[in-house]
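Give me the fold.
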Amino acid sequence: MGTDREDERSESSKKRAGAKRHASREASLRSASDRASGERSDPRGSDDERRFPRVPDSDDDDDAVIVPDAGAGASRSREGTDHAREGAIATDGGASDGDSCSPDTCTCGEKTRETTTDQPVATDGAGVANVDEMGELGDLEFTEPAENASQDVYDDAPDTRVGIPEGVDLDTPEYSIRSQMNDIETPDEKTWFMELDEAVIDAGRCIQCGTCVAACPSDSIGVGDDGLPELVKMCTGCSLCWDFCPRGGLRYERQWKITGGEDNVKGAGDPITEFSAKVDDDWTDGAQDGGVVTGVLATLLEEGEIDGALVATESEDEPWKAESFLATTTEELIANAGTVYNQTLALGNLDLEQWEHKLPDKDWADLSLAIVGTPCEIEGIRALQDFEWDYQAQNEGIRAVDYTIALMCTKNFNYYSLMGEQLEEKRDISPDEIGKMDVLHGKMMVYGHDGEMILEEDIENFHDAALKGCDECADFTGFCSDITVGSVGSSDEYSSVIIRTEQGMKAWELTEPKLDYHDLEDKSAVGKLQGWDKKKAFESLERPFDPDAPRFIDYTDHAENYGTALNPHDQGH
């Protein structure tokens, strides 16, 4: 293969002599073949038409390699050329006076010598560790996999190049190139998950709404074992997780006005109407207050308005731990009636593939869902729906949400802090003993399975178990929802219902025949608690509260207000 063509031409006179002898012998063989088949006809045409394997015409006079007629049956010969394979068998004792190959001799190099002890087995540039020179497979050696650490199977430096041919000098970049790349300045317009992690999650301000998971257009954000968002693959720096986070880049008070109008920022907002209501049915014994949320959702299902409702259910493994659940039947809704006082990252569970086994056989673009959540979760879904961006795995689920129901909320809790530390460890109340929980009139109320109250205590005593980010929320009544439901403002066994949108009014009118209702009993109670919630938020917020400012807050502005690292990746985050 490495023979220089100029060297070949320098030997051309010698090769021509051999070539002429081959040509003469070939002509004789061809003549004999023609005579033997003289009376046989070839439907494919003449001899010339049948010669398909041939060497293209050449401008030079190098005729050393002779290719016989395909039909003649003669073998090729490379005798006397440097093209013959090294190691070719010559069983005639090495003679090469022009004879072509025969069953006993090979002069063309096509048949190679049998493997001998002095003929090494060809391998790749790095060699084969467990194969000897005879090609025999030896014992395999396995490296035990590392646990909780990156696997390190070599003793040399990580920048060592392997399989370099002998004598080749490669310019290998130093391992420090990674450090140099990390020093590249980040474009100003990009905000990474790292910033969200630094400013919200690591800072203990995450409210576990799941908006960042839903917003990510590359599905790079998942949920960790601690129930908090985490990066599961490379971040693209699109900024959406930051922009839509109600404790990050989303100015939630601006979203109130975008969703509900200019007047949707004062008091409890700008509702259409308000009621105290309850469902008069036996199943309401397990419901929270009047069972209105379950009643509305069941009616929407029965009327074909929705195909399912994303609600909270109790974990099968951990009592009173909330998980997202898509209810698609009235029975499932009733079984999951009631309130669980910890978040489910609901918006991070809108990937319809997760619920495909429960959904009707229809195009996902035609699905209709309802979602029940805290005010911050409803703010998040409203903001996401305002834009036509593709949210990848969560996109169809986000677009399918046609009804939103917000639960009145002053704060939510970390499951392990509330159920484990506060109730079980400090107050000796096991989660298995609890039949119902409620936060009402500034009190934490815990009931047994028999309905008897186990605990009634000032809610402030549970402050350490509350999510820190809830302190910054001024949205007690769910300004962005279609319907708000809670217990404040109504007597026992009734729910307070605030209808905010035409969609909410439609759901109410469908459910109205099944309800026992009247005008909201105590509007002032709702207004007072909403006012108290805003006051607490204004004390905790470290940024200006401004419903007329832009919807999205730049990370640089947040960093200035909260003292957060401006470029956390430069500080070894």
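The mean pLDDT is 80.
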